[in-house]
Specification:
Number of strands: 0
Structural class: mainly alpha
Mean pLDDT: 87
Strand content: under 5%
Largest sheet: none
Shape: rod-shaped
Low-confidence stretches: none
Radius of gyration: 27 Å
């Protein structure tokens, strides 16, 4: 039997499971597109901006930030803007901006987690309903056919299998998204340290 046949044999519960899977997949794709755009500016850019701040000042650094996108670019903009107010002000502004950027990166992740949780639960529910129907056939039948009973039980278990498969796929994709987010966060932290250090160097030169 092919996958389509298994899907049809699983009964009505296969469709809501598929819907939940597709919803989770849409949010995964949306996050991946957002995160790919977020990696457009890397740590090397922050180091260049940090050097500009320490040698030429915040105004020149702001000019260098024009057109750059992503969390690290945002941090560079914040550091360049606050550079005249000293290292403490820059550090505080970077912390606030970093927290906002992290919240933006983790946006919609709860919907992916919800899809991961709901898919197998729907599968289990479909199995329970299928088993109830199978036992009703047994209870109402004077001449029990083992093939019919086995077919009903097999149909019921298909929903659990499908729900678990959907959850496993979404879980792997979610872990991939979280891995990308973790890497971006590490880059943001290193960039923040470089930017703060550049302001300290600038102050020390005065």
């Amino acid at each position: 039997m092919d996958i389509v046949s298994y899907f049809k044999d699983g009964g009505a519960f296969m469709y809501p499971i598929l819907l939940v899977f597709l919803i989770g997949l849409v949010f995964v794709i949306e996050r991946l597109i957002f995160l790919i755009k977020s990696t457009a500016t890397k740590e090397s850019f922050a180091i260049d901006i940090a050097n500009t701040i320490s040698s030429k000042g915040g105004k020149k650094a702001l000019e260098a930030c024009k057109g750059a996108v992503g969390p690290i670019a945002t941090l560079c903009n914040v550091a360049a803007t606050e550079s005249n107010h000293g290292p403490e002000a820059v550090e505080k502004a970077l912390d606030q901006s970093g927290n906002m950027e992290m919240a933006n990166m983790e946006k919609n992740m709860t919907w992916i987690a919800l899809a991961i949780a709901v898919a197998p639960m729907l599968g289990f529910l479909g199995t329970v309903v299928g088993m109830v129907e199978a036992f009703e056939v047994i209870a109402n039948s004077d001449d029990i056919n083992a093939g019919d009973v086995a077919g009903g039980i097999s149909k019921a278990l298909l929903t659990t299998a499908f729900g678990l498969i959907c959850a496993v796929v979404l879980q792997m994709l979610q872990n991939g998204v979280m891995y990308i987010i973790d890497n971006i966060v590490v880059g943001m932290q290193k960039s923040s340290l470089a930017l703060i250090k550049s302001v300290e160097t600038k102050v020390a030169k005065k």
